[in-house]
TrEMBL record, chain A:
Its EC number is 1.3.99.41. Belongs to the acyl-CoA dehydrogenase family. PANTHER family: ACYL-COA DEHYDROGENASE (PTHR42803), BROAD-SPECIFICITY LINEAR ACYL-COA DEHYDROGENASE FADE5 (PTHR42803:SF1). It comes from Azospirillum oryzae. This is 3-methylmercaptopropionyl-CoA dehydrogenase. Its cofactor is FAD.
Automatic annotation (TrEMBL), chain B:
SMART domains: ETF (SM00893). The electron transfer flavoprotein serves as a specific electron acceptor for other dehydrogenases. It transfers the electrons to the main respiratory chain via ETF-ubiquinone oxidoreductase (ETF dehydrogenase). Signal peptide: none annotated. Keywords: Electron transport, FAD, Flavoprotein, Transport. Coiled coil: none annotated. Binds 1 FAD per dimer. InterPro entries: DHS-like_NAD/FAD-binding_dom, ETF_a/b_N, ETF_a/FixB, ETF_alpha_N, ETF_asu_C, ETF_asu_C_CS, Rossmann-like_a/b/a_fold. Heterodimer of an alpha and a beta subunit. Residues 3-181 form the Electron transfer flavoprotein alpha/beta-subunit N-terminal domain. This is Electron transfer flavoprotein subunit alpha. One of its GO terms (molecular function) is flavin adenine dinucleotide binding. One of its GO terms (biological process) is fatty acid beta-oxidation using acyl-CoA dehydrogenase. It comes from Azospirillum oryzae. Belongs to the ETF alpha-subunit/FixB family.
């Protein structure tokens, strides 16, 4: 049946507020090279991107879900109806090149602005938006580490979107553990012969473009074992002639497409490399440094997947809100004449919706702050400033990826709940968001892998200095607000101070116990990540609330919008921040119990 | 001073819209003169003379007026406008094309698409696609106004006003008529149709939709359906009106054998006039219907076909 | 041939406007504003004429507040060459806009002016016709097809009963209807280039035009709510009501 598309309205006002007041768009625009990112330019770009999200991508979301991607008898993956023209619209619009080098066809605009555009595209159609996201990631890797020859051949067409890029990491035996990577690459003159099988490759094959540029992890014959022996290769689907035209089909075969719980529109391919001797591949950078390079791509991708958590939650929220206004079920408690009778006025439905709204704004604050820090880390004139920003990005990346995706899932589920029985019915569309959200905590490193990264590399490695530094900064803001004349700010500030206190205890415990038994912090890692996410979210909402109250005092007339900020922060402060104490208790008191049962007991060996 | 109305016609018949404009003019309380500008349009002038409230019909018969081109018709109106307090026309494609040109030539503001006459110089008109109603007052010597026909009754044909010839004025010869493609016979598209007739599960079969189609063709209506009717295979998917189908807001929506589930209502509740035909008097569709008929559709539809 | 395209900044068509409590108008503070959709179509048509080699330069004009610059930038990003803002904070009526445009036409000497057939805020549907009148030019309103060649333009118009084609001598005024074309999305490079295209600001005074409104808006109110419906006893009564009361058939 022809399901009417569920509309998506890009939240431009929220985005603009966060860009300007939390992420510091003006400071980013002042970085060398970003002169073009003036406020009116940012408005024009966001406005046009919003139109594309709303009018082109969003209507294809459901079609992609229903039709999925299918492998043709000719071995070529076919995307759903309308996806080809939609991709063409992005190419013609030059959207893929937004953050890239102008000398290679990019627009040279900030990552922060790109992030805002990506938010809208993921909200509109996450399965589709994966394709530009991965292509941008592949461009990053080639741009940073590829030889000039590789850059000349591949970058212009990848930046324009005429060719797409993929990330070929996962193998049947190597998922979270990349040390188990087996694909091999043998030197052969000016190139390598690549062989092996990769699984779960997003947009590993499709019919949107004439060529696909695979970035593949593989081992050289003499490579040391483990992660120190992995190299990165460019393996194009079609070889490229010296004049830039397409040559022979390379030995990359799409063996099958997965049938998935969600993101049906995104082809997830099993790729077989070098079935007849070896696929032609070109080394990126130096041998055996592939994982390091791939991490560049992955850090970009992790923040983007974190964005998917926000995006899908925003979409689910818009839909739930619209339904809650229309659906009537009994007279809401305390209903007064003139008020709508929609379930939106049932206090519990409000609780669900406020929970969604507050967490969405918290996520947007975290992600845009991180995105701005990426720009500062790459472009600031001062080395110390770059270094500080890089540390913030490093710390926020696992927190953002872990917390925003777990939260995105929870909110997509809350969106279903607001719909009652209709939420469980596919035609309504709320269920698709929940199914689509489910992948986000898995790919680009599961939540557990993010938590390991947080503990091992971001906390233990520097003795907690960066984490505690950020927590101190948050506590200072909380302290300031707890003495504010505005009641909502006061409550927010006080709860923030209390939550930071809990987080610091948990961090201290991790530092103390890691030496005793590394399994203890590992058992607590995801809980600690959640705790850090809860606090970081509160931090951003408190910042937003503070700015809003200041602007109101300065006479900014947008009262309805601005006065909602402290009230939303207070909701979060009283509904989410108090969880910090429970999370701390689990970290500190609960870790030992995680591994307490023996494996035999777990399996109930009786 | 009298009021001048530009008649809308095709040289053979007067368009019903003009009779509505005459009623609006009647509320202004002066003599009404109707201008028929056309070619061999005497029959139109005769019909115009019959409209109640018309004091005089002016007939300007000239080849230049055959296709109601804006430039010559506006020139004609301007040449005689000085004796009038108001120049009116129905807000049809002709009125909307010609009157602003007249207003500009007279150097007066224009008031489009009025839905009520408050006084001789004050009118109500919808703005923002009907989401607000503005009351506007004009102090110009001549008020140039188009009239939303649905807001005023049609003047009755109960009169015999004199018909007077007026001379054509020089054609500015800026434009010429090339061709016209009128009255498509196919049924209109659902979302664009002025009238939509939808059937539900109560239709019992796809064959029975024929009962709706014959009425639709008489009224120039599109045919829609509930999801239940689509799911049962009576009609194709693209007929579905509702939350997960098409959203329509025609002037008239007729729901036949449709219970009125909220998912269906979501797709048609903004229709201007809603008619429901259902044998169950408790059916929720009646809560949104302007006119409800509790009846067996198999009896009601043939009667309806006869009556329209 | 130079083409002039006037564009208006209006409340976005997706926004459900709310009437102000004091009846003085509708809420426009903090409401999303966009280019009038019919004007977007007009810009698109001009750009297509340029791409086809018929038009040589596209000048876009907006009469309105400083913020209308955004609307002009949008038109520049779609492919217009330069822009003129006739800056005024007065809520201009179509006649005043037509007079401003006439003054600009006299300066710019375009061969064709393409406007939207109506603005979706005041829903007037007057400006194009008025401009044609003031210039003494022919008018092709509600256009669904425009073919310009040999000093003439053939305009297919959407009229009540179907379509009609008229031929106008150039220079002429055309107003765009919805089916004329589907406006393009501005590309990112063009959005960036638009910033560097010339945008000139003038005032109605400098053009010698008085834009003071002629009409007085006494009040703005909510439309009447749907009346409670009735049950009719039979088909005859139903048809009678539809004809005489609802007047929809
Ligand atoms: C739809 C989809 C698209 C994908 N796209 C791509 C792509 O484009 N390119 C690509 O290379 N890959 C892609 N992947 C693969 C994805 O990155 C992996 O599935 C993911 O990294 C997890 O690996 P795995 O599936 O092998 O799970 P496993 O590693 O087997 O994990 C199973 C469970 O064990 C846990 N676990 C494993 N190791 C540890 C540890 N050390 N500490 C704690 N817990 C641990 C995990 O958290 C998880 O809960 C995609 C996967 C899917 C489903
Ligand atoms: C797969 C499936 C199987 C089912 N099987 C059966 C069956 O066998 N028999 C049967 O009779 N029904 C069945 N149902 C219906 C099911 O019981 C209802 O869907 C459920 O009771 C919720 O009602 P609703 O869908 O109308 O949601 P609504 O009542 O509209 O609820 C929407 C939202 O509003 C909230 N809400 C509503 N009222 C209040 C209130 N007063 N205070 C606070 N919040 C409120 C709800 O909590 C929910 O979040 C089934 C539904 C599904 C989806
Ligand atoms: C997720 C979801 C999405 C949906 N989307 C839509 C949608 O987009 N559009 C839509 O229409 N529905 C939609 N529905 C379905 C909707 O809930 C109803 O099931 C559907 O509208 C019922 O169609 P109906 O009124 O034709 O059938 P019924 O509810 O079965 O009503 C039939 C009516 O015909 C009357 N009738 C029967 N025989 C006669 C007769 N001889 N003479 C006169 N009257 C007679 C009966 O009294 C009854 O009122 C959706 C449902 C879900 C769960």
């Amino acid at each position: 049946m022809t399901a009417a598309a569920i509309p998506y309205t890009p939240p431009l006002k929220e985005i603009r507020f966060v860009l300007d007041h939390l992420a510091g768009m003006a400071e980013v625009a002042a970085l060398p090279g970003f002169e073009d990112a003036s406020p009116d330019m940012v408005d024009s770009i966001l406005g046009e991107a919003a139109k594309i999200a709303e009018n082109i991508l969003a209507p294809l979301n459901r079609i992609g879900d229903v039709q999925g991607a299918n492998l043709g008898a000719d071995g070529i993956a076919r995307t759903a109806e309308g996806w080809g023209p939609a991709w063409q619209a992005l190419v013609e619009g030059g959207w893929n090149g937004l953050p890239f080098d102008p000398t290679r066809g990019g627009m040279g605009l900030p990552n922060l602005l790109n992030t805002a555009v990506q938010e809208m595209w993921h909200s509109a159609n996450m399965a589709f938006a994966l394709c530009p996201m991965l292509t941008q990631g592949a461009v990053n890797a080639v741009q940073l580490y590829g030889s000039d020859a590789l850059k000349d051949i591949y970058l212009p067409k990848m930046i324009s979107g005429e060719w797409t890029g993929t990330m070929n990491i996962t193998e049947p035996q190597a998922g979270s553990d990349l040390a188990a990577t087996r694909s091999r690459a043998v030197p052969n003159g000016d190139h390598y012969l690549v062989g092996g099988q990769k699984i779960f490759i997003t947009y590993g094959d499709h019919d949107l473009t004439e060529n696909i540029v695979h970035l593949v992890l593989a081992r050289l014959p003499d490579a040391p074992p483990g992660v120190k022996g992995i190299s990165l290769f460019v393996v194009p689907k079609f070889l490229v002639n010296p004049d830039g035209s397409l040559g022979a089909r390379n030995q990359v075969k799409c063996v099958s497409l997965e049938h998935k719980l969600g993101i049906h529109g995104s082809p997830t391919a099993v790729l077989s490399f070098g079935d007849e001797g070896g696929a032609t591949g070109f080394l990126v950078g130096e041998p055996n440094r592939g994982l390091e390079y791939m991490f560049t791509m992955m850090n970009h991708a992790r923040l983007n997947v974190a964005m998917q958590g926000l995006s899908i939650a925003e979409r689910a929220y818009q839909q739930a809100l619209a339904y809650a206004r229309d659906r009537v079920q009994g007279k809401p408690l305390g209903w007064t004449e003139g008020q709508s009778k929609g379930i939106v006025n049932h206090p519990d439905v409000r609780r669900l919706l406020m929970g969604m709204k507050a967490r969405i704004e918290a996520m947007r604050g975290i992600l845009y702050t991180a995105a701005a820090a990426v720009d500062v880390a790459h472009h600031h004139a001062d080395e110390a400033a770059r270094g500080r920003a890089a540390l913030l990005v490093d710390l926020l990346t696992p927190i953002a990826k872990g917390w925003c995706t777990e939260t995105g899932q929870q909110l997509a589920s809350d969106g279903v709940q607001v719909h009652g029985g209709m939420g469980f019915i596919e035609e309504t569309g709320a269920a698709q968001h929940l199914r689509d959200a489910r992948i986000t905590t898995i790919y680009e490193g599961t939540t557990a892998i993010q938590a390991n990264d947080l503990i091992n590399r971001k906390i233990l490695r520097d003795g907690g200095a960066t984490a505690n530094g950020l927590l101190d900064e948050i506590a200072a803001l909380g302290g300031e607000l707890s003495g504010h004349a505005d009641e909502a700010l006061r409550v927010t500030g006080a709860e923030l101070v209390a939550a930071v206190h809990e987080a610091k205890q948990a961090v201290a415990w991790v530092l103390a116990t890691a030496k005793q038994d590394p399994r203890l912090p590992a058992a607590a890692s995801v809980t600690l990540l959640e705790l850090m996410g809860v606090v970081a979210g509160g931090w951003q909402l408190a910042r937003a609330a503070k700015v809003a109250v200041e602007r109101l005092a300065e006479g900014d007339g947008d009262t309805a919008f601005l006065s909602a900020k402290p009230l939303t922060a207070r909701f979060y402060a009283t509904h989410v921040l108090p969880k910090a104490a429970a999370l701390r208790a689990t970290v500190v008191n609960g870790s030992a119990s995680v591994m307490a049962l023996s494996e035999e007991q777990l399996f109930g060996a009786a | 001073m009298p009021i001048l109305i530009l008649a809308d016609h095709d040289n053979a018949t007067l368009k019903p819209a003009t009779a509505h404009a005459v009623s609006a003019a009647a509320k202004l309380g002066s003599d009404i003169h109707l201008l028929v500008a056309g070619r061999n349009a005497a029959p139109v002038a005769e019909q115009a003379a019959k409209l109640a409230g018309v004091a005089k019909v002016l007939l300007a018969d000239d080849a230049a007026y055959e296709h109601a081109l804006a430039e010559p018709v506006a020139a004609l109106l301007v040449s005689i406008a000085s004796g009038y307090s108001h120049v009116l026309a129905a807000a049809t494609s002709v009125g909307k094309n010609v009157l602003p040109r007249v207003a500009a030539l007279l150097d007066v503001a224009m008031i489009s698409d009025i839905t009520a006459v408050v006084s001789a110089d004050t009118f109500e008109r919808p703005i923002y696609a009907g989401n607000a109603i503005a009351t506007v007052q004009s102090s110009d010597p001549v008020k140039v106004v188009t009239v939303r026909t649905t807001a005023f009754e049609a003047a009755a044909a109960a009169n015999s006003a004199p018909v007077e010839s007026v001379a054509a004025v020089a054609d500015p010869a800026l434009s010429s008529f090339v061709s016209a493609e009128l009255s498509k016979s196919e049924r209109p598209e659902l979302t664009a149709a002025r009238i939509v007739i939808s059937g539900g599960r109560g239709m019992q079969s796809g064959d029975n939709f024929h009962l709706l189609e014959v009425i639709a063709d008489k009224l120039g209506a599109a045919v829609g359906a509930s999801r239940a009717a689509v799911d049962a295979g009576f009609v194709p998917n693209d007929y579905q009106v509702g939350q997960t189908g098409k959203i329509v807001a025609p002037e008239l929506y007729v729901a036949v054998g449709i219970s009125g589930a909220i998912q269906h209502l979501a797709g048609m509740k903004d229709s201007k006039v809603i008619v429901a035909i259902n044998k169950d008097e408790e059916a929720p569709i009646f809560q949104v219907a302007d006119y409800g008929l509790v009846a067996d559709l198999f009896k009601a539809l043939p009667e309806l076909q006869q009556a329209v | 041939m130079k083409v002039l395209v006037p564009v208006k900044r209006v409340v976005d068509y997706n926004v459900k406007v709310r009437v102000k409590a004091d009846g003085s108008g509708v809420e426009t503070a903090n409401v999303k504003m966009s280019m009038n959709p019919f004007d977007e179509i007009a810009v698109e048509e001009a750009v297509r004429l340029k791409e086809a080699g018929t038009a040589t330069e596209i000048v876009v004009v907006s009469v309105g507040p400083t913020q209308a610059q955004e609307t002009l930038r949008t038109a520049l990003a779609m492919g217009a060459d330069r822009a003129i803002l006739v800056q005024t904070d007065v809520t201009t009526e179509p006649l005043a806009v037509a007079k401003v445009l006439k003054a600009l036409v006299e300066k710019e000497a375009p061969g064709l002016v393409i406007l939207g057939k109506q603005a979706i805020d005041d829903d007037c549907n007057q400006t194009g016709q008025m401009l044609a009148a003031l210039l003494g030019w022919g008018q092709g309103t509600f256009a669904s097809k425009v073919v310009a060649a040999d000093g003439k333009v053939a305009v297919t118009r959407e009229i009540d009963g179907g379509l009609e084609t008229v031929e106008l001598k150039l220079p002429a005024v055309v107003t765009a209807d919805l089916r004329l074309n589907e406006p393009r999305y501005a590309s990112l490079p063009n959005i960036m280039k638009a910033k560097k295209k010339p945008l000139e600001t003038v005032t109605p005074d400098a053009l010698g035009v008085d834009v003071t409104p002629r009409l007085k808006t006494l009040k703005v109110t909510e439309p009447a709510k749907r009346q409670a419906g009735i049950k009719v006893p039979d088909v005859a009564t139903l048809v009678d009501k539809l004809k005489s009361e609802a007047r929809v058939i």
